[in-house]
Write a structure and sequence with these properties.
6-stranded mixed beta sheet; Rossmann fold
């Protein structure tokens, strides 16, 4: 593998069975991504964005073709190896914040480090650093129901970043936010991308997000119809 290419997608096809027939969600997708990209999978609902993101995150398997992520063939991974890849190297940000309501902000961010069996001091340092990245150290002891939508999504960004992953996959991360909070969230992620060289891949159709992208991969009906370098 080209050491600079951390994602290689090759003739990827994804079919879902529908009774006696099937629906082709992804149709012969091929592209690669380098370390440090700030890239969007852009297209209308049903274009295949989330399906592709799920395969890149080893949450789903291709029907044909393959995605090689950080040198690992997604279709060849066992459930255990897929979980290990996600736990160690990939952060996820969703449109629904998925915060655990009974846990504090600190505990929500800390959760993924518990899976990695980090020591207490190392966890505390990493969590507070991640909260400082998103400007929420003063909310460490708050519960999710005490946060605004923008604050909740910033916690979700901190949770994705706390293990310092090589790749962050963000699925419509601004869908539930107003314009001001959308811009704040994307600027925060762009800053992390620039400072830490973390690769960000978005699934989005939000023009506010698209305006910050460095690269736009346009999907329609499960196919890539354009691949543009923006800045």
């Amino acid at each position: 593998m080209d050491n600079n290419k951390i994602i290689i997608v090759d003739n990827l096809i994804k079919d879902y069975s529908m009774g006696s027939s099937f629906f082709r969600a992804l149709n012969d997708i091929s592209f690669s991504a380098k370390k440090g990209e700030f890239t969007g999978l852009v297209g209308p609902s049903g274009s295949g964005k989330t399906t592709l993101l799920n395969i890149l995150g080893a949450l789903d398997n291709p029907t044909q073709g393959d995605a090689v992520v950080l040198g690992k063939s997604v279709k060849s991974l066992s459930h255990k190896d897929a979980a290990q890849l996600r736990n160690h190297s990939i952060g996820f940000i969703f449109q629904t914040y998925n915060l655990l309501p009974v846990y504090t902000v600190f505990e929500n961010v800390e959760f993924s480090l518990l899976l990695l069996k980090k020591g207490k001091e190392e966890r505390e340092e990493a969590v507070m650093k991640a909260l400082s990245w998103v400007g929420l150290t003063n909310k460490a002891n708050s519960r999710p129901n005490q946060l605004s939508g923008g604050e909740s999504q910033r916690v979700a960004v901190a949770r994705a970043m706390v293990k310092n992953p090589e790749i962050v996959l963000a699925d419509e991360p601004t869908a539930n936010l107003d314009a001001e909070n959308s811009h704040n969230i994307i600027r925060t992620m762009l800053k992390l991308n620039e400072e830490l060289k973390t690769t960000f891949i978005f699934a989005t159709h939000d023009e506010k997000v698209i305006s910050y992208l460095h690269r736009k991969i346009v999907l329609n009906d499960g196919k890539i119809v354009n691949d543009l370098i923006l800045n």
